Amino acid sequence: MWVAIAVGVVLLVLAAILIIIYNGLIGKRNQVRNAWGQIDVQLNRRHDLIPNLVNAVRGYMEHERGLLERIAEARTRAIAAGGNVQQRAEAENQLTGALRSLFAVAENYPQLRASENMLALQEELSSTENRIAFARQHYNDSVMEYNTARETVPAVFFAGMLGFSKEPLFTLDAAAPERAVPQVAF
Amino acid sequence: MVCPRCGLWNPQHNTTCESCGASLRPAAPADPPVIPTSAAAIASTLQPGLSGIAAPPTEPQIVQTAPSQPRSRIDEPSLYAPVLGPVNRESFFAAQRRHRRATWKLTAGSAVAAIITGIPLSLVLAPIIFAVVLILTRLLHIVIPVPDGVWNAYRDASLVLFDAIDAMDDPATPGVVEGDVGRIPTSLILKTAAVWLLPGILLMLAIWPVLIRLFRHGGAGGVLLSLGAREPVMTDLEERQLVNVIEELALAAGVRPPRVMLIDSDVTNAAAVGSSQEDATIVVSRALLDDLGRDETQGVLAHLVASIGNGDLRGAMSIIAIFQTFGFASALVKVPISGPARTTVWKMLRYVFSRHKPHERAAEAHVISEMLTSGIWDTQEDDFSKIDETDRKVQERPGPSVRLLLYLPITLIAVFMATVLLEFPDALRRLSLLGVVGLAGLIVWYQREYVAYAIPRALMWTRMIIMLPYYMAATFPQLMISMMTSYMLEPLLAWLWRTRRYLADATAVQLTRQPDWIAKGLSEISSRGGIFPGGKWAGPLFITGPAYGSGFSSAGGGVGSFHPPIPKRLKKLRRMGASVSEVQQSRAPQRPARDVRRGNPLLAIFLTPLLIVLMLIVGILIIVALVLMGALALFACMFLMAAVYGLFELIAPI
């Protein structure tokens, strides 16, 4: 009698622990997926902003026609890439580079720099760049949390069985300019 | 390359600083550094004090030029001087884990402290709950007969404390020596605790979540929004930027973007208000936007977003609800003897059952919350402070003394209590009551001309005498609660909240990955920060706060600060990699330094132990006072409980 009750209690506690761990893993995995979705949302936001930007600067920057075309083209390619991660990442990286040089060049046009419209656009774009960076960072933080939870002791015994697979971290392509090691010289 | 003006690290190829735009190409040093040639000269640069001994007199010119070499690179005075990082570096993840563990411990400690603080109240609540239970069971008895065992259990419960006292010097209990106060058996202690502590504590534990839900409309700091907060103007670049900054941070934290409101105040601060992660609002003063750059704004607001993400708003609601629970319970207890308590309970009931518009409800919630929490500390106001007033009114009336009439109620009560307590036989008790009532009738008949004058005063005295045990039972726990809240519960909660601030700081670093941003922002705010006018009671929800006098219960003592001092926060941020020096330098015009008069160190040596001894004595006195008050309250409640049962047997026997 007492043995049966004891065994029952132990089983109940085990089941409760299992449920808590399982729900925790589900929550963390969904956070990872949501974070992945956020990156896309922010990239799309950037695509929506670019036509405005190009229109705003076109009048001032006749000499930089090539640069503006490069931006428009990178945007088109990024949209066209759709689900192809490799191509998409390449196009997005080009877009990032082109936008940076646009703002660097814009420094040479005092009228443009002083334009209220341009300032607002610049703020919007740099905010979008931040958002993309933050969304990636949040994705990686979530992945780290999820993977750690998945691979540490109580969960590691059955996470694989229940179909919790390891999620990949978001890393930049090794060839991307952001990854180039800065030359340090003193 | 480190920017000479702002201390930010820039990639090597940059020619201007990314943060402040200063030129990174340093001008060639005006005079090339002179390298000391001899060992003696090197020794003299290291220890200038020893140069006179170590340096031979043949090389004085080298000794003179050497110490001047490290400066003169930077022409402007540096604003945030880069400093060497501390040795005990810590990653923000490790810091978060550490602070989180600390908050768990402190939460457990605070919960225990809250329950201990609730004990005096539960002593008074016990007889009241007992009375309610008795009445309910008696009503139930009319419908379904209740077994005798229940009534016997009630009888036992009402006398359990008498039993415990009896057991202390009863030779029959094991462990009791004749003529010696012995131990009470464990089972009796458990029974006493179950009767006296459990009902009150359970009741308060049940009220607490109800109050959290009830005041959710007000939210933590909800009324801040009615202090002239406005929506940001999207055409204003700075305010547009603010909204962007907060949305970016919400992305980084993975929370729903909080609403943003602005207050046109010249205090540099911001607060997170609301009742949960889902309906959070960040209130920012316009001055913060004007004073801080984008990065610094992002740093300090990251603290608020991190705080929201960590669930601090719910925590704040729970803490406020603890004070509200105590306030409500003590108001309930004081309903028979205090006008303000009746008002509080009445307003509370009206709030529960009324249908207001949300913003009116927030204001109403705030008012009632204030009444509840300040009720903990308000021990002065009760009906008996009005006795003097009635006395005066009676005395001003013409006519002979009505003294005889005044003794009447006292005699009545005394006889009644004596018959109950001495357990007179029923016949004798009724006879004595009849005798007293008859006597009273006679007196009233002979004094009938003056009765009208004396009635108010006599009523008041009667009430006071009837209420005397209750008055004692209610007032002492009230005093104990206010003391325990001020000296135990509130400091603990403040400590907990301070740890939550460190946690939010560490999470903020995780969000921005830039310890410098928040560190610079904090150091900037520290010189001009403050609490918005009218927002003092929501002080703990701000980024920074005053060292004293801010807490969730405005009337509270404010023994502990709800915010850690800024230098301490900067120190912890430096461990996570911030390079802001400990010395607080600010762009704001420096206030003139206070004239600190240096005391005599000898005096301090004598005075310090004296002060410690004094504080110890005061502490011991407070504890003794608490124990004495507890004993008195328990004594009063003991009779109250027995009286409840006695009255019940008298009025509605089974």
Low-confidence stretches of chain A: 177-182
Strand content of chain B: under 5%
CATH topology of chain A: de novo design (two linked rop proteins)
- Looking at the overall shape, the CATH architecture of chain A is Up-down Bundle
Share in helix of chain B:
55-70%
Write structural notes for this entry.
The complex is a heterodimer of chains A (186) and B (654). With 186 residues, chain A is mainly alpha-helical. Chain A has helices at residues 2-58, 65-81, 85-106, 110-114, 116-151, 153-156. Chain A starts with a helix and ends in a 30-residue tail after the last helix. Chain B is mainly α and 654 residues long. Chain B has a three-stranded mixed beta sheet with strand order 1-3-2. In chain B, strand 2 (270-273) and strand 3 (281-285) form a beta hairpin. Classes of the chains: A mainly alpha (186), B mainly alpha (654). Chains A and B meet through helix 1 and helix 5 of A and helix 9 of B.
Quick recap:
In chain A, α1 (2-58) packs antiparallel against α2. Chain A has helices at 2-58, 65-81, 85-106, 110-114, 116-151, 153-156. In chain A, 76% of the residues lie in helices and 0% in strands.
Features:
heterodimer, A: 186 residues, 76% helix, elongated, B: mainly alpha, 62% helix
SSE blueprint and pairings:
The complex is a heterodimer of chains A (186) and B (654).
Chain A: H1 2-58, H2 65-81, H3 85-106, H4 110-114, H5 116-151, H6 153-156
Chain B: H1 39-46, H2 51-54, H3 60-65, H4 92-143, H5 148-158, H6 160-168, H7 186-196, H8 198-214, H9 237-253, E1 259-263, E2 270-273, E3 281-285, H10 286-291, H11 294-309, H12 312-334, H13 339-353, H14 358-377, H15 387-396, H16 403-421, H17 426-446, H18 448-512, H19 515-528, H20 566-575, H21 601-651
Parallel strand pairs in B: 1-3
Antiparallel strand pairs in B: 2-3
